[in-house]
Amino acid sequence: MATGVPLFAVLIDYLLGMVMWTLIGRFGMGLFLPETSSFFFNRFFVRVTDPLIKRFEPITPAFLVRPLVPLYVAWFFYMARFYVLPWLLGYSVMGMLSFPLEGQIAQGLTRIRHVLTGG
């Protein structure tokens, strides 16, 4: 876990990170499947992210093609994680949290690799 960072900040970052990656997942699924697909992962991504996409409609540019909208909304969550959250916590360097969610995932994958390779 991130050292020197308050637990509530890490939890907020985890929440924002999960939302961001879910939106990116919907964008990725949208490259291969229509929104109306019956594939269960696609249905999950659409059902979970539709309310967010609707909330961001007022600031979504009209020229943006529909499949890019989830990526556009995910960008706001990225910006909040990288710039707004550290600023609210009083850090003088933007990006100070440096994404604890992704750091934890990378550490877990490294441990799995070491277990599988014996190294």
Assembly annotation: single chain
The gyration radius over C-alpha positions equals 17 Å
Query: Helices and strands: which structural class?
Result: mainly alpha
Largest sheet: none
Kindly state the percentage of residues in helix.
55-70%
Task: Describe the protein's architecture and organization.
The chain has 119 residues and is an all-alpha fold. The chain has one domain. The protein is built from four helices and no strands. Helix 1 crosses helix 2 (40-55) and helix 1 runs antiparallel to helix 3. The chain is flat. The mean pLDDT is 86.
Q: How would you summarize this macromolecular structure in one to three sentences?
A:
With 119 residues, the protein is mainly alpha-helical. The protein has helices at residues 7-32, 40-55, 69-88, 100-117.
